[in-house]
Amino acid sequence: MNSTELSYADAGVDIDFAAGCLNEIDKTRSRERDVIKSHNDFAGLFSMGELCKKFAEPVLVSGTDGVGTKLLVAMACERYDGLGQDLVAMCANDIATKGAEPLFFLDYFATSNLRSVPFVMIVNGIVAACDEIDCALIGGETAEMPALYAPKHFDLAGFAVGVAERSRLLGSHRVREGDALIGLGSSGLHSNGFSLVRKIMFDKLRHRPNDVLWQTERRVMTVRDELLVPTKLYVNAIKSLLNQDTPLSAIAHITGGGITENVPRIIPPHLKADIDLSALTIPRIFTYLMENGPVSPNEALRTFNMGVGLVIAIPEAFKRQALDQLKESGEVALEIGKVVKCEGGHRCQVKLS
Questions:
Q1: Backbone phi, then psi, for 179, in 5-degree steps?
Q2: Residue 164 to residues 100, 151, 303, 313, 349, Cα–Cα distance (Å)
Q3: Quick one: CA dihedral 174, 179, 184, 190, positive or negative?
Q4: Is the distance from CB of 133 to CB of 126 less than 8 angstroms?
Q5: Rounded CA gap, 177 and 181, in Å?
Q6: 130 neighbors 30 (Cβ within 8 angstroms)
Q7: pTM of the model
Q8: Are 45 and 138 in contact (CB under 8 A)?
Q9: CATH of 9-168, one of 3.40.950.10, 2.60.40.420, 3.30.1330.10, 3.20.20.210
Q10: Which of 3.90.650.10, 3.10.290.10, 3.40.50.2300, 3.30.2310.20 is the CATH number of 172-351?
Q11: Tell me: the pLDDT tens digits for 62-85?
């Protein structure tokens, strides 16, 4: 090469290194008979043959999401092992709210330079999370853009596709007055509200990653430990209910917008959710943020999950069956409210204590 010639690597994009990283990524074991192997292709291939036999009127259900500014916390704390699950959960939990079983997943990873980020660790985390919910990782995109991202920074996005029987799709059209509302416990903050979390924990309180927040019976919880607990995957819990023909009405995934913004999305306009969280043991991180922000109860309820990652609306007659099945699945689940008539005012009334 002439000494004056430039290569892509000179511009900060190392194609050879990226190719080597791809060889270190695990392969999902899920849906192997449906994934059509196509080495070095430009698209992922998934056969619908068996699914068309299983469903009378199959509907593809899709969802896309990211991990948000939780990534900045991971970078500051130099802990990345849970981000793959965060990404899969944010997307797969969304499509599961329609009663869909996940089929395949794609990821998008963008960074300034692959050598400066734990790319293989994160993508292998995506693989592990996909296998946990029987979902194939059939492709993705890796982009090095040194002029767009700061050194050691990166972004993640995910895309999930599932399938459901059209006649069994869950949603507000099934919800009736008197339906019980069941809350499933979250694993912590999940992947929402982190711009506010960072402002309180790092800007105001000046916490460092190894600062001890509190001690539980099992371990000492540092800032790093508490903030980076991976988002809980609810797919298998929902699947267990549907496999037992439990007649669910609708499901709300409590993400951005918290409880008060997400639950009304599954309630018809003439009804509202009357929720009482006083029986719930709210995880300590939420009360800590509220006290030290300070953050008002209303603001917390529209920003955080407050310990409830999923809300299921179900006919009153079947709530005990659902609660028993969820507990058998290892979920922390309890009745947190009712669907009642809306006579003006807020469509999600929440009592904290």
A1: -60, 140
A2: 4, 42, 30, 18, 31
A3: positive
A4: no
A5: 11
A6: yes
A7: 0.94
A8: yes
A9: 3.30.1330.10
A10: 3.90.650.10
A11: 999 999 999 999 999 999 999 999
